Predict the 3D structure of the following.
Amino acid sequence: MDKSIYKNRRNSLKNKLPKNSALIIPGADLQYRNADSSYALRQESSFYYFSGFSEPSSVMVLINSGEKIESLIFVPQKDKLKEIWDGYRAGPDGAVDEYLFDQGFENNKIDELMPEALQGLEKVFYSIGKKSGFDQKVIDWTCAANSKDRHSNSIDIIDGSSLVGNMRLIKDEHEIDIMKKACDISAESYIDVMKSIKPGDNEQGVEALFLYEFAKRGGRFPAYTPIVAGGESACVLHYIENDKDLKGSDLILVDAGCEYQMYASDITRTFPVGGKFSKEQLDIYNVVLKANLAAIDAVKSGNSIMEPQLISEKVITEGLVELGILSGDVDTLHKEGAFKNFYMHKIGHWLGMDVHDVGDYMEDDDFMKFKPGMVTTIEPGIYISSTMDVDDKWKGIGVRIEDDILVTESGNLNLTAKVPSNPQEIEALMA
Ligand code: GLY
Ligand code: MN
Ligand code: MN
């Protein structure tokens, strides 16, 4: 695979990283499920974004020398025996030849070599407080670099989260192509699973079907643990027990998305297990759908991220009043936040390599404005648990509809529109 895309991203830091500064990015370490059984490595997103490199326990240092971006990487050493058991390692030479870094080193030399690399710089950027133990490492390397050169100013340590996050917030063409594919895989998987669901199925079986449908299309892992919630379980926002039988009279809320080539998709659909919405289920569903569509319309370059938020709150407040679930003046209820008992989360979040992706939500002391290349989820919901003080007929209904929206020059593109959210289309699909 062409690795120049990652090198170009490193080089583009030339205009973002101050001169005479370094950006340090640690990669992921292997995680163990039990004893010596490890999970498959999931590389740390920013590390992968700037390297395309997927070996564990690696660290990258990108230095703006003023002339250019110097790229250094510390990687696992070549080791014949380890390679027999665990597979190919690029080693320092491979990191240079295959991944186009300027210099590669064995990661066991990092404590010795990092202070030399940092010596004489003015600033060191890294994501403070994100990786256990790494803060102390950076302090130690920086102190060692300072003590090598007592006649220079000491090096400032600065949080680099926004610098990297806001770069990743605007997706380039390569990323958009991958995200479209991730969303297509998830959307096609939804359609196949929705067609097959029937009363008596177990949530766990439905989860397994999603994982199978993702994997067979190239998305081996889900981007997050799927939520497969029949009936009232849908009112538990982060329900992941996924172990109950599904009743024909219930709705099922599924929040599932594959990860494809390191990029997440994130879809929620709520549909009737028995294939037909009841009157009350449809009433609630239609309010959420109206909020979803109106909020998607507000995702436009130049609009504040608060616009879809406020629109979804207003549509849901109005809908709950029309159904008699809330009573009073819509504007007053909205101001008082009465909707929050039913719609208690935000409209969405940035989407990218991480499902809750990096990138700031504020800029210049105000809410961020949408710009082309951003991808956000739009996911309004209404959740009425049986403990709420409402007419019994509404109890146990939980609905969320979530789509992934790319901001374009001229408006937006719904990357997950292939899965129907229109209730008639859902019923037709499930018939
Ligand atoms: N699937 C996680 C979320 O919707 O935020
Ligand atoms: Mn989401
Ligand atoms: Mn979701």
Notes: Residues 170-430 form a domain with the Creatine Amidinohydrolase fold (CATH 3.90.230.10).
